[in-house]
Amino acid sequence: xxxxxxxxxxxxxxxxxxxxxxxxxxxxxxxxxxxxxxxxxxxxxxxxxxxxxxxxxxxxxxxxxxxxxxxxxxxxxxxxxxxxxxxxxxxxxxxxxxxxxxxxxxxxxxxxxxxxxxxxxxxxxxxxxxxxxxxxxxxxxxxxxxxxxxxxxxxxxxxxxxxxxxxxxxxxxxxxxxxxxxxxxxxxxxxxxxxxxxxxxxxxxxxxxxxxxxxxxxxxxxxxxxxxxxxxxxxxxxxxxxxxxxxxxxxxxxxxxxxxxxxxxxxxxxxxxxxxxxxxxxxxxxxxxxxxxxxxxxxxxxxxxxxxxxxxxxxxxxxxxxxxxxxxxxxxxxxxxxxxxxxxxxxxxxxxxxxxxxxxxxxxxxxxxxxxxxxxxxxxxxxxxxxxxxxxxxxxxxxxxxxxxxxxxxxxxxxxxxxxxxxxxxxxxxxxxxxxxxxxxxxxxxxxxxxxxxxxxxxxxxxxxxxxxxxxxxxxxxxxxxxxxxxxxxxxxxxxxxxxxxxxxxxxxxxxxxxxxxxxxxxxxxxxxxxxxxxxxxxxx
Amino acid sequence: xxxxxxxxxxxxxxxxxxxxxxxxxxxxxxxxxxxxxxxxxxxxxxxxxxxxxxxxxxxxxxxxxxxxxxxxxxxxxxxxxxxxxxxxxxxxxxxxxxxxxxxxxxxxxxxxxxxxxxxxxxxxxxxxxxxxxxxxxxxxxxxxxxxxxxxxxxxxxxxxxxxxxxxxxxxxxxxxxxxxxxxxxxxxxxxxxxxxxxxxxxxxxxxxxxxxxxxxxxxxxxxxxxxxxxxxxxxxxxxxxxxxxxxxxxxxxxxxxxxxxxxxxxxxxxxxxxxxxxxxxxxxxxxxxxxxxxxxxxxxxxxxxxxxxxxxxxxxxxxxxxxxxxxxxxxxxxxxxxxxxxxxxxxxxxxxxxxxxxxxxxxxxxxxxxxxxxxxxxxxxxxxxxxxxxxxxxxxxxxxxxxxxxxxxxxxxxxxxxxxxxxxxxxxxxxxxxxxxxxxxxxxxxxxxxxxxxxxxxxxxxxxxxxxxxxxxxxxxxxxxxxxxxxxxxxxxxxxxxxxxxxxxxxxxxxxxxxxxxxxxxxxxxxxxxxxxxxxxxxxx
Lengths: 541, 541
Hints:
homodimer, alpha/beta, Ubiquitin-like (UB roll), Nucleotidyltransferase, domain 5, 4 domains, 6-stranded mixed sheet, 15 helices, elongated
């Protein structure tokens, strides 16, 4: 028998050898199948859910006892998901879901080949209740609120499963497993668990390590017995999406120490290796998500993601995220706004070109005509009205820069604090993984230039893209996925950030470009070399 | 802490030590409880069903994290049933059910004290579909038939649970477990499993060893998470009621070899000890149930259960089953009929008094005026019309006697065959357990006199009463009940009775009173000593 991707997987197909019943062997149908599965799986404990028991005799006889059983591992036992025709086995499939608070990505995976068949991305319909998580938590507390929030996301997922099923000519019944990675609130709402205490001191989830649950129990339109693996969380602020990131980075397989950073409204940071993990999360400020700047936007086609400024001519070269193949092109109309990574690129380039100083303030001499003032606040004209996709000028204000600097300072301070806690110097970091959509566009060179991340060799930085989805897919195809996730989860020591005097001192020192201690960023070369604070000199604190 | 009956039980209460959540310990509610339960139970794997996960935060907080958890053992893990107030723990209860095809007996048990609180007996409402099992199996094959059969019995059980709950001032929620012993068809119908193949060659049940299933999944009106332990079966003809009998007899704890006999429409026989068990079932004829004789009835108040005949005067002394306390007395009206054990007593006494001969034929000289002829068939007047409770004479016909003799011969032949198979002489039998209502009224002396059971010292015979109920109750209070039942079940070797020439020879020889080989029954002393076949002489074959 050919080895396939599923041979060691936690969800797999087995074709048991079943003798037809006879007077000499009157073993019951369920017990006959269980015995055959036990032999194939070399397992002691094989369980058949009661709802399957009710129809198994019919199914076994319909296929003359030649069936393919699809099973999943649940702790020390294996559980039957379904039986299919054993003479002409068809494919079995799984779904992995990135359960984002704004965007969901659903991937259809061929479990036998271990290959992605299709992927679909769609908005979280809970946005109609509120774009931020707190609003949704409060809404869940209203009469019927939790049920509504769960129904919104489940209905949409089921609808999108319908699309995937149709477009890929597979049946819902053949989808025999699902993995779900999301933050703690999103997974609570997905499971219909009350998120009330997540946002109230001392911030207690209903569950950290959810058991596998059936699609039927959740209300998912796939095989009713399909196991749904919802990623565990460490607490309110450190969710399954981060566990997925750790899994996707494979940092727990490495001997050297890695950083994993996921930046959204919060900066979530993990440091560790195969022996230990420490994590913390802090408010890095929404500036990095591009949510606050005047022209800030979520990363999307037509949004500025790269900026180059010629230090001699001060000419701007602006790059935007290309439209997806087949969709109506928006590039031709000009940029629509700027995303977080574009903002970092822009501020980095402004700094290198001497157009802002080490405190992030505009240098009028260098900015020239691009600098205007509106309501007493300096604005830099990045894209003029006639070149922009909105018909209005895209500008960067002093306030936008100040916001970004606070965010980058927070990030750098968090990185410094957590590495000091575990007594690891930045130089000893082997890999610096950047997760999330943000991470897939960010230019590490620019992030170093503004002092957001440590001045390490660029090869240290690895962008992982959508680690929630990658991690969820890895778990779907894994050997003993839940055990691995629990292991990762249980290894994590969560560092509660104390915003004390020491933290504030570090933060103040990091609020300069790139830092008050210039020796920390030897690779950053600014225009004319001015604006640099002499190495070792401290400001503030 | 005082040791209670439940300390080692598979369903038990534990009060975990739970610290209230704090910023220093933000473990989720479910995980906090699981951790506390694991400590108390010294168990690795403690599971919380998804439906409980949904409401656990509320319950824990309602009791300030001081809760009593009720758990049950499921293989290697423990599962939570519910949480209750830990400051003022109340009682928890269980139900054991004898799921008979005609009568159900439901017992309410205090799980903490291990004591029966109440017991209620009621008709199986499936009788309205058909009194025999085959009719019900065929009805189950009709559109909606299975659902109707299940609903009939479940509705009645739930109704009777309602009565128990009310009369004993307990709540349905506090009933946290149930055990069910019945024959294979009855348990299939109880669980809503299609019995279609039970009565068709090669007689395959849906399941032999059902997993524990929740009350919610079955549709029982007790705590929804309460485990329901349905006794396993060996096959269509050897059900959970017999496993309950083996458990109740404790024969598997004995070094010496025991017989266990349960007589209904079938004679079910088990032989074995702590090391091995062999079982067989054969049609012993309904005569033993009292179902066929003209005056035959099920054992009930007012029914004849004992008969003494003075061999000198031929005077009959007739005993009936007394009315239950508090119920309207029927004794005064005279006997209503005769039950199986009464029939055995009667025929035995007729034989000892010389009123029937060794072939069971009436001896007119000895019967005198009691003997009459109707439609060419001899009838013995047992109770004259004026003394009977029906106003009509109660008579015993030659056909009734012939039927009983066939049944007793079948029983003796089965006992002979199975003991020959395992090469155990009757003399080596340490205990002869008789199960069932039949067994609780039978007089072993009479059964020996007619050659139905071996001529062993009377102290060998032990009547066990309702072993389904006793076994179910023992399982409810047991240490690892399901494992014990599976162990008993798996130890049983089922002997398929071949009705071959050898069997027929044994059967023919047993169709005499007490037997053609009189040396097998040295203790049987008949009136005048006549009628006995000389020792060693064989008839038939």
